[in-house]
């Protein structure tokens, strides 16, 4: 498969479908040289700097996600990145993704909730997690993640690897370097734990990725009826962070109860 614009290189649906079916710890595919090389370099050349992206979007500074900027408003993207957004939302590519993962009636997200342009600076990271599974306002079930990397000359020792973990986060099954023009697509589910190792690139470098998500109106066949937001889990060697995360969860529960009391008081 290649798009009419020539943005995405030819894809062997049958081969990737087989890879997705047999992949562990959950269905996924890795595609190198995903985009036309010239287009990928053009996209990289117009990528906003970290500081400019921070002005355009949102910067994360939490215990689980730090030194990361996200820009979701595609109207603010440079033209080449707007074109990439449109191609990934095209019926042609969606049909290919549906065939690979055997998920009919996929829908793109024009709002790029949680997606768009991502940049992570030195000492940044994204801890292991499963993504939110439902958009309540639009009644949509999240089904696929697509990640495309724009990091020329990225060295393994710079970290920033995408990790895929097993269901109880006891074992990292795969670790992928975020090298230039690499694409990873995986199913979103209650067991699709993934994260990014600490970025240790030089101070004048950043880790760049483009993220998109696909949804369906119908629920997955194994859906238990529970919607949830992003759930983080500590890696086995992160005992201190595990305690901090437990404290945060307790604090969030307390805050939630206080809000309920306030709402009841205001409504009385």
UniProtKB/TrEMBL annotation:
The keyword Magnesium does not apply. It comes from Rhodococcus daqingensis. InterPro entries: Pro_4_hyd_alph (IPR006620), Pro_4_hyd_alph_FE2OG_OXY (IPR044862), uS12_prolyl_hydroxylase (IPR051842). Transmembrane segments: none annotated. Pfam families: 2OG-FeII_Oxy_3 (PF13640). This is 2OG-Fe(II) oxygenase. Keywords: Dioxygenase, Oxidoreductase. Residues 26-215 form the Prolyl 4-hydroxylase alpha subunit domain. Its cofactor is L-ascorbate.
